[in-house]
Amino acid sequence: MTHYHLLLGTYTSGSSSKGIHHFRLECAPFQCREWALTPADNPSYLALDEEGEHVYATHEIGADREGWVSSYRLEAHTGMLQVISTVPTKGSDPCHVAVSPQRRFLFVSNYSSGSLAVVPCDRHGQLHDPVAVITYGGGSGAQPERQQGAHVHFAAATPDKRYLLVCDLGNDCMYRYPLLDESGDGCPLALDKVQRIELPRGSGPRQVKFSPCGRFAYVMGELDGCVYLFDYQDGDLRLRQYVLLAESWGEQEHGGGELAISSDGRFLYASNRGDFDEIAVFALDEEQGTMRRIQRLKTEGVMPRHFEITPDGGYVLVCNQGSGTLQLFDRDEHSGYLTHMQQCAFVDQPACALLLPLPH
């Protein structure tokens, strides 16, 4: 499958982007054309539910304003979006949204206010005001410009669907909450049983991705440019390895961005912004999950905030936020190596790509 709907979340403030831009992408032979637009304010992150029926978008509209989260109905054949509802997240700069295991709640990460919003969602995609907003104080202060307070950047369920993990970039830690049954109307988190999982000072954990087998968790350190490997079993996370995205720390600025793991669990990909504008490729040990860097590749643009491996595994699409470019890379499924293939489009401040196979 090389034909896709591409839904592109963007920053619209101070840019020419207007919302969620919809493209049709063909990788072989290459063709990329804009198809439609769903107007929205700063839809910086997009998430699709497991049934492929609804898309959710965060609206990151400023540190001094309350942000929103919206739901859309997805038309599978056309890729068109129809807005269903929008609710406030009771915090500022919501930058990530994830759907709960039973699809009854959204977990929204409010970056600037350092809080997690738990938003009810019914099976039709209708959203309701948050049933809980968990605010984290502190700030590690290791990097004063970025860590004077909590900055929640990510929250998602573990593969066994028993726990929620929350990444707090400002406090250099993750929080683990047991997930409760979602049949009631209350918060589905056991708030009194939260566990704090520490990472090195100044690491700035941005997100976590699990291996397909579910035994290994990889955490992106945005501020120190490291990827951290944790062993995972029955809710227990134990740090075992870390690797640099670049050759050394040095004086250059790191900006760890997106993480993705190939569907066969053999390779991990990580973007590095700052002074690098690269994707690092790591071979993963099948038994131990350990990482070995095998490639560093320029993304042919500035500030690779996000990227997606195509569902067929053959390509990687990179969103270069700073240069406003989408770049397509060929992916060798046997070696894991990437090769630059084609610039897809110019889109001002692309922030998140969602690729959906076109139905036959």
From TrEMBL:
Any one annotated GO CC term: cytosol
Signal peptide coordinates: none
Record-linked InterPro entries: Cycloisomerase_2, Haem_d1_sf, Lactonase_7-beta_prop, WD40/YVTN_repeat-like_dom_sf
UniProt KW ATP-binding keyword: no
Gene Ontology molecular-function annotations: 6-phosphogluconolactonase activity
Pfam family, one: Lactonase
Domain of life of the native organism: Bacteria
Keyword set, alphabetical order: Carbohydrate metabolism, Glucose metabolism
Gene3D superfamilies registered for this protein in UniProt: YVTN repeat-like/Quinoprotein amine dehydrogenase
Biological process annotations from GO: glucose metabolic process
Family: Belongs to the cycloisomerase 2 family.
Name by which UniProt lists this protein: 3-carboxymuconate cyclase
Organism in which the protein naturally occurs: Zymobacter palmae
